[in-house]
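Hey, resending since the last one bounced:
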Amino acid sequence: MSDHISVNLIPAYKPLICRTRPTTRTVQVWTEEASSALQDCFECTDWEVFKEGTDLDGYTSSVLSYLKFCTDAVLPTKTIKVFPNQKPWLDSTVKPLLKACDTAYRSGDKLAYSIARKRTEKRH
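The structure tokens again:
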């Protein structure tokens, strides 16, 4: 009974976050304890064993596979969820800095905003 015509429009474009599902990745976490344990592992290694082969390719592949074995054995792993619109440089150290910048900007305090921006720029 209205004099207006209702039209339902469906957009042709779907945002990337709606088109693809988040993926899970397993990453290795570098901690101080893991770094010291890895250094201990390399200090007690007899590196002369790898020199037995005269082939340079065989030597490099054996050393690299030993390094991978040591890092896989020592470093703890963590499973994370990665969203399709997530930038790779936004990690757990950058997010609080950006949040502090946003909070300072919204509060209207120019000095706090300037300090927060400088801290964020130092990170990059």
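Residues 11-84 form one domain.

Sorry for the duplicate.
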